């Protein structure tokens, strides 16, 4: 995949250091753009505050999935990462997982289950905090900062955002 470095060169979230590459327009599948468009910068601002940008497809391939990054360019510590893995991409990759359900089960093992979000959902606390949800043949992951898992209000905001994402999936 052809990449270009974002004009900001590096985006630092409090949850992890991310050097963000953005897929060139001709490398992004239309379906990937639709997935990233399942939330708006206003939706993201309700969760993280600030003024996040419109979000960009940062990667798009069967191997890595589809990644969307929303960054508050006035505060690089404030951002949100949204990732999608579909059964079709996992199968095309020919790797360890052949379905979104298998991928979800692997990455949420030991997580805190959440009810009412898609077919299944869970918070996972590993190197970073992530809320995973499975809906049909798609897994969605929203990464959050470490303090989110302990704050019921913050958790509720992320869960509301996840509800919007999975409701709007193409």
Total E-strand runs: 11
Would you list the SSEs in sequence order as H and E? EEEEHHEEEHHEEEEH
- Classify the secondary structure makeup into a structural class: alpha+beta
| Count, helices | 5
Query: Strand content of the residues, in percent?
Result: 25-35%
Indicate the overall shape. globular
Distance between the termini: 24 Å
Radius of gyration: 15 Å
Q: Indicate the mean pLDDT.
A: 82
Strand order of the largest sheet: 5-6-7-11-10-9-8
Instruction: Pick out the low-confidence regions.
Output: 1-23
**Major sheet, described briefly?**
7 strands, antiparallel
Q: Helicity range of the residues?
A: 25-40%
What are its keywords?
alpha+beta; seven-stranded antiparallel beta sheet; two-stranded antiparallel ribbon; 5 helices; 28% helix
Describe this entry's structure for a reader:
- The chain is α+β, with helices and mostly antiparallel strands.
- It has five helices and eleven strands; from the N terminus they run ββββααβββααββββα.
- The strands form three sheets. A seven-stranded antiparallel β-sheet has the order 5-6-7-11-10-9-8, with helices on both faces.
- Helix 2 runs antiparallel to helix 5.
- The two termini are 24 Å apart.
């Amino acid at each position: 995949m052809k990449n270009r470095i974002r004009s900001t060169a590096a985006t630092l979230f409090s949850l992890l250091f991310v050097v963000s590459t953005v897929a060139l327009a001709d490398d992004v599948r239309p379906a990937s753009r639709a997935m990233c468009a399942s939330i708006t910068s206003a939706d993201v601002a309700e969760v993280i505050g600030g003024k996040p940008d419109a979000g960009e497809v940062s990667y798009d391939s069967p191997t890595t999935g589809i990644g969307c990054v929303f960054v508050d360019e006035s505060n690089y510590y404030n951002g949100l990462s949204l990732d999608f893995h579909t059964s079709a991409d996992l199968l095309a990759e020919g790797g360890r997982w052949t379905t979104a359900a298998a991928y979800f089960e692997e990455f949420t093992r030991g997580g805190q289950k959440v009810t009412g979000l898609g077919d299944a959902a869970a918070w996972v606390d590993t190197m970073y905090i992530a809320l995973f949800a499975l809906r049909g043949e798609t897994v969605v992951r929203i990464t959050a900062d470490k303090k989110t898992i302990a704050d019921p209000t913050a958790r509720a905001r992320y869960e509301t955002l996840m509800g919007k994402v999975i409701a709007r999936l193409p």
